[in-house]
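Re: folding output
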Amino acid sequence: MKPINISIAGAGFSSRVFHIPFLKQDVRFNITKVYERTSNYAAEWLPNAETVRDFSLLLTPEVDLVLITTPNQTHYAMVKEALLAGKHVLVEKPLVATVAEAEALAELAKQQGKVLYVYQNRRWDSYIATAKSLIEQNLLGELVDCEIRFDRYAKEKNSKAWKEAGDRGTGLVYDLGVHLIDQVLYLFGKPKAVYADVRYQHEGVLVDDNFDIQLYYANDFKVVLKASRYAREPSPTFVLHGKLGSYLKQTPDNQETLLKNGVQPLGKEWNMEEKENWGILHTELEGNVVRQPYPNAQASYQNLFDDLYQVIAYNAEPVIKLEEVIFVLKVIERVFESAKLGQKIYL
């Protein structure tokens, strides 16, 4: 099959760090155009791509796939326009702000016979891939508790004005919570209830910047998701306890840091972590209690683009399914409902 021609809407942080480094070195994809309203960043990174000033100019006949990395508030209109133009779409998370909008776009993609794929890359964070493997090997036994955190430290509000405007679909729950909820869905399936505390800690802030989300499963298994922008000293990123053993990862996945520092994602070992940053497995093996560093399962955000190619080129079943994306948005809607009412909400 000839390379998939891509046009990109947006040339900001997401495009530069999470997408272009993978796409530009993958012969299965060919970046042809980039939409920037006023800047000319793409000319430096993609000298062979055309810069356009109107989104509609990304939808020309030779384009197969439109990548949308623009602010959240623009996603619905842009995805709809691209699908109506007969293009496959890869869109940054969150897909949109509401379940109703997501369902409408999913139905449109089905009618058009096109792929609508959401960039939930954090399924390929190292600790998620490792936890998945440990669960499949039953090295932890029946699960009882899990905590996943996404802590950062920022004295000031976000420098991107659109993230602080107070529009629906912005704030920390939609920015980072959408990743954590998707990770939980991937590891454990659908929860049966949610209880949430959502806070606004920066002075004068219009969007949430701290959350504590509790997800409840059968057999008293509970998952706690936390994020803060006032965590100078972060807590462990991932903790999973079972009746047989525990797995703990102190440090977050390293891929974002590597990509921000200009490391190119070439080969299978580009994001290998040093042993000192491995997680700890504390369990029983053949009747003996062991506590030891446990190597990460191989995982890379490249896996997402591999999957996307298979879905477009060969009509493969996607790893990230639209019904799962919609369920994550359903949970987010219930998160804000729970926080407002101060009570557990059943899903």
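--- second protein (sequence, then structure) ---
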Amino acid sequence: MQRRARSQDAKLRRAEDLLEAARTLAAERGGVRHITLAAVTEVVGLHPSAVRRYFDNKEELLLELAERGWQEWRDAFTTHLAGAKDLTPTQTATALGVTVARLPLFCDLLTHVPLSLEGEVTIDRARRFESNSFTAFDTMIDTMTATGTMTTEQAEDLLAAAVCLIAHLWQVSHPTPALTRLFDEEPHWGRMALHFEPRIIHFLQATATGLTMLTGRPALAP
């Protein structure tokens, strides 16, 4: 029993090493699209085939980081608004933008979760991701309604819109080297590629303001 426990502890530590290596490489290489399993395992000192002891594939490793990103955003957001009362919709939107901008890896991963990550893992792993991410989502909704003046429906719509906006705007705001050169030559094409934080805050403020002017939601499809 003791040997088994030590082996399990070692496995958990090695899995954490792989996740940390992926974080480091994403920061160094300009995003998760440049991460390979070979590079991750090289940092940790493993043979690429050995990663399957810890994660089925690269997508499962990155999905784990995305799941933790939701928890990190939830914690940062609830801490940021601790003690707040009667916030306006634009103040709530600002808090969403400020806190998510501090999580660059999560912003990047939000693009890849629906694009590839969830579709390349087992259904049980996808179910776990959905369960944990929606738990974080719901906690953030509760925080928004407890500290601000938005209704639950408005808060849900704002957070859903935030995820969509972040996923696109992060990529546009962090162009590839080739696009960076192109935007240097044609600045009017690169206007959307600058200053992620103030732009996401502005878009979320506008969305929050608009949501408070609407009555009801479109009917959901059966």
